[in-house]
Design brief:
With 574 residues, the chain is an all-alpha fold. It is elongated and about 95 Å long. The protein has 2 domains: 337 residues, no CATH class; 212 residues, Phosphate transport system protein phou homolog 2, domain 2 (Methane Monooxygenase Hydroxylase, Chain G, domain 1, Up-down Bundle). 79% of the residues lie in helices and 0% in strands.
Length: 574
């Protein structure tokens, strides 16, 4: 009974540590989330900046998993390329080593849990504030206090090996197989991190085990390597519902960490000797030669093992990044091979031409923005193909899949509009001629109309969802008429793209003719609908949904003609 209670106490202490870590991370993300996301989106113009960005954000929010999930969401939304994401993930791996040092320096050498209750009092005062930012800061302070309370509880809940040496027997059984033991504890570290969903929690457990002389330094090092593999599972779970690019970004994290563990296992003993040499430079016993069992009675030996594990964690991630950063294109090819795009579909929704800040001159920057606007238009046209599919689909399961794409495209158009607008804002800070200023105003209008195209796609999806929820179906005649309307909108899209690609656009009669066709078709369908209402076989509610779709398609036509008109106005400014 005592053993069972001790196990649950250990699990509870671990839960407290995990909850504190989560609360601290989430509180800080809420307090500075927008700034962190903006920082992440902007600081990716070169390899060094990408690594530094991942390092800083992870060091601040104390969670490489949170940073990686944020990166995956950015890739999913198209705001980061796979290459940029890999660099940020590399930096996140280095940033997560800060947690181990915090625990090593404060968690064992000083009883910081004494300050936990006063910190919770301070955090609660902030948490009671009506201002969301102060409330988030309160969460961060309370989380920080709970983290170290959990660590203190972890230390207190492990059995005393002096009076209960049998508690060590189970672990010792697995430490006597030479290099086989190293591989076993790599797997144990991986499994623990997958179960706990936090490499920081597993690292805390590892440090506690080392501190109390449960495992020797080399076995602790093996667990650390396993933790680096296990931590990748969080990003892969987050990416499971994302697009192909998001899945590849998460897989890149796995490939990067697994590759690092493999090369380190090859030079495992020499690398540990290097770590031991570095630790001994601090005037501490070499963790490779010190008697780990004596650590429980010798504070210097304990500190040596703690610093050794933390140093190994840091040195491994820094070296792995310095080596593999030169092989980012290779990692990219590997993950593309592992995570293949669906047949006939490559889902890459990201900025294609705007990769860094504005160029030296406003004109060149605006030309770059124009290319991105054309790309934006092509994405909107692809969205329209899903609108046509959704309208014609009668299978509810298949419709749900298509509708998810419409929702995703709405998010993508929002993001791209924001990114292009942010870029134009940066360009506007420089000296602009009157021509460039007018050209920029037209661009703002165009991207606003394109974002509205994404909104209309989602709106049509919602109309069709309501139709299906009420078990209504468009009959063959209705679908025939809707496809007639869709054809006119398709022609308008083609005219719009032609106009966007024409640098010397002076005539938009193609777009005006397409708009006239859309309006004429809408009027005919409306008259037919009114006439059909009088027929007994015509379901009025189905007719309402039908006309709602027609009205939204006509709105799409309005957005499209507005884009061509703005493009014509912009061409005249050149």
């Amino acid at each position: 009974m005592q053993a069972i209670l001790q196990i649950f106490t250990l699990l509870g202490a671990l839960g407290l540590f995990l909850y504190g870590m989560t609360l601290m991370s989430e509180g800080l993300q809420k307090a500075a989330g927008d700034r962190l996301r903006a920082f992440l989106a902007s600081m990716t113009s070169n390899a060094f900046k990408r690594v530094l960005t991942g390092l800083l954000i992870t060091a601040i929010i104390q969670s490489s998993s949170a940073t990686t999930v944020m990166v995956v969401s950015f890739v999913n939304a198209g705001l980061l390329s796979l290459t940029n994401a890999i660099g940020v993930i590399m930096g996140a791996n280095i940033g997560t080593t800060v947690t181990a040092w915090l625990i090593s320096l404060l968690g064992f050498s000083a009883d910081i849990s004494i300050l936990a209750i006063p910190l919770i009092a301070v955090g609660f005062v902030f948490f009671m504030s009506k201002k969301s930012k102060r409330k988030s800061i309160g969460e961060f302070i309370i989380g920080f206090a709970l983290l170290f309370m959990g660590l203190a509880a972890l230390k207190d809940s492990v059995p005393d090996l002096g009076s209960h040496p049998e508690a060590l027997a189970f672990i010792q059984k697995w430490t006597d197989f030479g290099f086989g033991s190293v591989l076993i504890f790599v797997l144990i570290g991986t499994a623990l991190t997958i179960v706990l969903q936090s490499s920081s929690a597993t690292m805390a457990l590892t440090l506690v085990m080392v501190n109390f002389g449960w495992i020797p330094f080399d076995i602790a090092a093996a667990m650390v390597l396993g933790e680096n593999i296990g931590t990748t599972i969080t990003a892969n779970i987050a990416a499971a519902v994302g697009n192909v690019s998001a899945k590849r970004a998460a897989m890149a994290h796995t490939v990067f960490n697994v590759t690092g563990v493999i090369w380190l296992l090859i030079i495992f003993r020499p690398f540990l000797k290097l770590v031991g040499l570095i630790v001994s430079c601090f005037g501490l016993p070499n963790p490779m030669t010190a008697d780990f069992a004596a650590g429980t009675d010798n504070p210097e030996v304990q500190t040596s093992f703690l610093y050794g594990v933390s140093m190994l964690h840091t040195l491994f991630n820094v070296c792995n990044t310095l080596i593999l950063i030169w092989f980012v294109p290779v990692i990219e090819k590997v993950v593309k091979f592992i995570v293949k795009a669906p047949a006939g579909e490559e889902e890459i929704f990201r900025l294609k031409y705007i990769q860094g800040g504005p160029l030296n001159t406003a004109e060149l920057s605006l030309d770059e923005a124009q290319q991105e606007i054309i790309h934006f238009g092509e994405i909107c046209y692809k969205d329209f193909a899903y609108i046509r599919e959704a309208i014609n689909e009668r299978n509810n399961d298949r419709f749900s899949e298509i509708n998810q794409k419409l929702v995703k495209y709405e998010e993508i158009t929002d993001r791209i509009e924001y990114e292009i607008a942010s870029y134009l804002n940066e360009v506007s800070k420089g000296e602009l001629s009157e021509t460039s200023d007018n050209r920029m105003k037209s661009m703002y209008k165009i991207i606003g109309e394109m974002e509205s195209l994404g909104d209309s796609g989602e709106a049509i999806g919602r109309i069709l969802q309501r139709k299906n929820a009420h078990s209504k179906t468009f009959d063959d005649e209705m679908l025939k008429r809707l496809n007639r309307m869709l054809d006119t909108v398709d022609a308008a899209y083609i005219a719009m793209l032609e106009n966007l690609k024409n640098p010397a656009l002076k005539d938009i009669s193609n777009a005006q003719d397409a708009e006239d066709q859309i309006n004429a078709c809408r009027n005919n369908l409306r008259e037919e609908h009114i006439a059909n209402i009088e027929n007994d076989g015509y379901n009025y509610q189905t007719g309402v949904y039908y006309m709602d779709v027609v009205a939204e398609l006509e709105r799409i036509g309005d957005f499209i003609i507005n884009i061509s008109q703005a493009e014509e106005e912009m061409s005249r400014q050149k």
